[in-house]
Amino acid sequence: MNTDFKDESSASASYLVSHRNSYICLRKMALNHLKSFFLNVSNTKYNPENLPTLERYVEMQAEENVYDLEANLSVLKLYQFNPAYFQATVTGQILLKALTNLPHNDFTLCKCLIDSPKLEEEILVRICELADLLEMCQFTDVWRIINQCPGITMNVEGFEDSVRKFICHVISITYQTIHKERLQELLGGLPELHARQWAARYGWKEQANGELDIANLEESVKTKKITEKITFDSVAVIMANAPSVTAR
Q1: Which of 175, 210, 180 is CA-nearest to residue 192?
Q2: Are 161 and 190 in contact (CB under 8 A)?
């Protein structure tokens, strides 16, 4: 009887794995189809009839943790040309996906294509506030907003890890050492084990006192020999062309 139970469990597990793999495969096919659609309509991408498909492509990007800036800019441009079709939710997903690509300026590019009155939508106001805090490196406040309004970012797969990646980028160019507890705080209150995994990803070495070595100052500071090559002939030409000064 135990053998039969094990066989049934094994068969059930195999079915679930097979079903999951099939689902993943179908999702990838759908994503590739939408991407191909965008590439095929590149000459007519500002046709409003393409908007529903492009909006679905934005949603798939959020769900599958992929990113296509050009397609997203096309959606925002269509909203500019056709204000009646504007969707705040889709626009919010586009802006959040742009934030996942920090420190690049994708967010600014996207925001510039949105009319000012549209930015007064509540969800867009919160996202813009999030972007401002990230730009100012106010990371504690960033996590406060994310925790207070989880519905804003929860539909964008991998958003929080993308924020952590940007935070680690900022830390790597501004800190020489940082305590692991401070790192945990900046990364959104991560458990110590997870914070160590992020530190290991960037090659930060932990000391006995809990400090993490971010950068070796001796390796980052390099002397550079500057040789000035100014010949007399080049100076003579300048002096010859200079206006004469009459002594008084």
Answers
A1: 180
A2: no
